[in-house]
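Today's session is about reading a structure prediction critically. Students often jump straight to the picture, but the first step is always the sequence itself: look for stretches that repeat, for charged clusters, for runs of hydrophobic residues. Only then move on to the predicted structure, which in these notes is written as discrete structure tokens rather than atom positions. Here is the chain we will use throughout the hour.
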Amino acid sequence: MIKPFSLQPLVHLAQQKNDAATKKLGQLNQQHQTAQQKLDALQQYRKDYQLKFQEEAKQGMTPVDMKNFQDFIGRLDQAIRQQTAVIEKTKAGVQSGRTELMDTTRKMKSFDTLAQRHVEAEKKLEAKSEQRIQDEHSGRISAYRMAEKDGEK
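Below is the predicted structure for this chain, in token form.
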């Protein structure tokens, strides 16, 4: 009978950590995509607002309206800069998550390899034991047959 692998709790723990790292990377990727979508929306809104400003400027506008447009575009630019900083943070988070996942996957595979080697070694021991029992059984049968032949003579 194959003995249980003594490091099995560590194998299980490594699998749990790998699953958690996979889930975390998925969440980090989702956060990055959401941040990128917000940045894209802000950039598109700024572009549209800039076009609206240019169209109204061609038709003539008051200095107050021009200042309001420029102030609002300035606030959009600030929001775009802030969102760009958020994007950089989420990129770093995704990269960190990838590194963590690679580490946990490597550890999990190492433990799996050790577990497979353990199973193979135990199977070899079991096969040797079965072979030894079979050899002993064959030896007894041969000895019994030899004894019977000697008894017949």
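Discussion point for the tutorial: The chain is about 95% helix and 0% strand.
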